[in-house]
Amino acid sequence: MKAWWIISMVCLLTLIGCSTDTTSSTNGGEDSKSSSTSDSDENLPPDITGYVMEQEDDRILVVDSVDPDSEGNPRAMWVSGISGDSFIGKQVEVWTQGDIQESYPEQAAADHVSVLEMSAVEGADLEAYEALSNALKDLSTQDILSVKMLSFDIDSDEWLVQLSKVGTGNGEVEKFIPDSK
Fold first, then answer.
1. pLDDT value, residue 169
2. What pTM does this model have?
3. Which of the four, 4, 40, 47, 66, has the lowest number of CB atoms within 10 Å?
């Protein structure tokens, strides 16, 4: 049991240590540095960072991770103006243009989107975003979901995906995803 806990913590820390891949953008496949962001805005932090939990046509639902110290709902935003790439399960940073509608989830148009590359997990065939994507495909819920934990257990060769339901359907969902492509 102690070894499983250590592996889970190492996986979680590995997932947190990620770098930005600026090749994904909303400007038709051009490099995101050439988007409509002005030079003075390039150093601004993203408007939201989180996991893509749903994708419909040209918009994605980005939901921040669950903060165990917070009593409120994690931040969530429908972001429109997204290219046809599949973003489900990926961790992204989003810069918006124009006003952000303050509903829950919030709504905004994307200026550009950067996919955060997560470190590969030793011994795993799937990448973390693929495990999350597979878990989300199997779920049929209208609730907004937030990632609580993604971990890989090398002994059982499967991913544990823990999600929290936010809003009126509070609760948790736990999925075990076999580590195979």
1. 58
2. 0.76
3. 40
